[in-house]
Design a protein that fits this description.
The chain has 349 residues and is of the alpha/beta class. The protein is built from ten helices and 17 strands. A hairpin with a 6-residue loop joins β3 and β4 (46-47). α3 (178-184) packs parallel to α4 and α4 crosses α5.
Length: 349
């Protein structure tokens, strides 16, 4: 029985031409993670959580969605992104994975935080520190405190345009570590671990290896049977994490040419394919606009025996998600998790 697509209003997303009339069984594009291993095409190594996705997958961006403090849409300021509260809220919905950002502090603790800098305001002056330059106790001192006896440092955030906002959301939560996430988030929830590195830095191999080994120590100790995948925008990072382990799939993140970088490997989907093929990676996570601009890229990626997921604000529009399903994209990372999962699920189930 066909189901009608539910309309979703998204305040801060560009209005593109609407997709042609959609009248299909949307249940086809939502399925739980399949627990069977899949043999890697290069090395014959069994890879957990699938080199091939069994069906279309929906992932929660930074949990239940990123925070856009400048947005007029209250849903983008509902729950603190990259927090245990956000992750467990997403886990209540029919999704397969949550995506979150991992960095390593000065004292070698993997923590969950997106921005390169963490910021506050002292006597009216905006002060920011690089996450990787501070210790774990200092990092955890920002935002709400689990220990009521500790003083909370208020958090601020600067947009790309330079506007500064106090980081206020309806449902706040404390900052957390990677170990916290493994211990406190529903065990059935898969993790897309994005390995964050500063675009302004040039990292030497020794640095990358150390940071990735620190992350892998936590993953190997706590993952157990949880579905895991790694992703990163940094080509050298995805190539190295693939060399350091063969248990979990590795995906190369790219905006497909929407921005231009000194590293040419980051500037197109064609370069992304080359990186994946050279390193034996499992797939690509592309900014959705790059795929919608060049639908033939899906075929080129599939012909390279790679999987394809997408991210971006257009993934908050159900019509765009369904278009991608028809194109052969295998999954999407979304902010409006509740709305998108409702739109793509069969109400009769």
């Amino acid at each position: 029985m066909a189901t009608a697509l539910k309309a979703v209003h998204v305040s801060d997303v560009p209005n593109l031409d609407q997709a042609s009339e959609i009248n299909a069984a949307l249940a086809l594009i939502k399925a739980p993670w399949s627990a069977h291993g899949v043999n890697d095409h290069d090395e014959g190594v069994e890879t957990k959580c699938g080199f091939k996705w069994p069906k279309f997958v929906v992932m929660g961006h930074r949990g239940s969605g990123m925070n856009m403090l400048q947005s007029s849409d209250d849903r983008m300021k509902s729950i603190k992104e990259n927090s245990i509260r956000s992750f467990n809220s997403a886990a209540q919905l029919p999704i397969d994975y949550i995506e979150f950002d991992v960095q390593v502090t000065k004292d070698d603790c993997p923590v969950i935080f997106h921005d390169s800098f963490i910021a506050t305001e002292e006597k009216g002056v905006f002060v920011e520190k690089r996450v990787t330059d501070i210790t774990l106790p200092e990092f955890l001192s920002y935002g709400p405190q689990t220990d009521l006896g500790k003083v909370s440092i208020p958090m601020f955030r600067k947009t790309k345009e330079g506007t500064i906002f106090e980081w206020k959301v309806e449902k706040d939560d404390s900052l957390c570590t990677l170990q916290d996430v493994f211990e406190k988030v529903d065990r059935s929830m898969g993790f897309n671990i994005e390995l964050k590195f500063d675009d302004q830095f040039v990292y030497i191999e020794k640095q990358l290896r150390h940071v990735l080994q620190v992350v892998l120590q936590v993953v190997n100790k706590h993952a157990k049977d949880r579905p895991i995948m790694f992703s990163s925008f940094q080509p050298d990072v995805v190539l190295m994490i693939r060399k350091l382990q063969s248990t979990y799939p590795v995906y190369f993140l790219t905006n497909g040419g929407s921005e231009i970088y000194k590293d040419v490997r980051r500037n197109s989907l064609e370069e992304a394919i080359k990186v994946c093929m050279a390193g034996g990676l499992q797939g690509i996570v592309s900014e959705v606009r790059a795929i919608l601009r060049d639908p033939n890229a899906v075929t080129r990626i599939k012909d390279s025996n790679l999987c394809l997921l997408t991210y971006g604000q257009l993934n908050n529009i159900p019509e765009k998600v369904y278009m991608q399903h028809l194109m052969g994209v295998e999954g999407v990372i979304v902010d409006l998790v509740g709305e998108i999962t409702e739109a793509v699920s069969d109400p009769n189930n």
